[in-house]
Amino acid sequence: MRIGIIGTGVAGSLLAEALLEAPGVQVAAYERVAAGEHAEAGTGLNIGPNALKALRLHMPARHAALRAASLEWRRWFVDLTDGTRLFDLNLATVAEEPGLRIRWSELYRLLRAPAADRTRHGHALEALEEDAAGRLVPVFRTADGVVRDGAFDLLVGADGRYSRLRALTCGEPPSTLLGVCIWRLLVTDAADCPYDDYGQWFHGNARLLSFRVPGGAVYIAGTFPLPDGDRIPEGMKTAEAQRALYSPKNGPPCPAVAWMLDRIEAQLADIHWARSATAPLLRHDPSGRALFLGDAAQAMVPTLGQGATQAVECGVVAAHVLRRGGTIAEVARLRDERVEFVRQFSLEASDTLIPGVDVVEGTKRKMEADFLAKLRKTYTEVE
Question: Domain for residue 338, yes or no?
Answer without folding.
Answer: yes
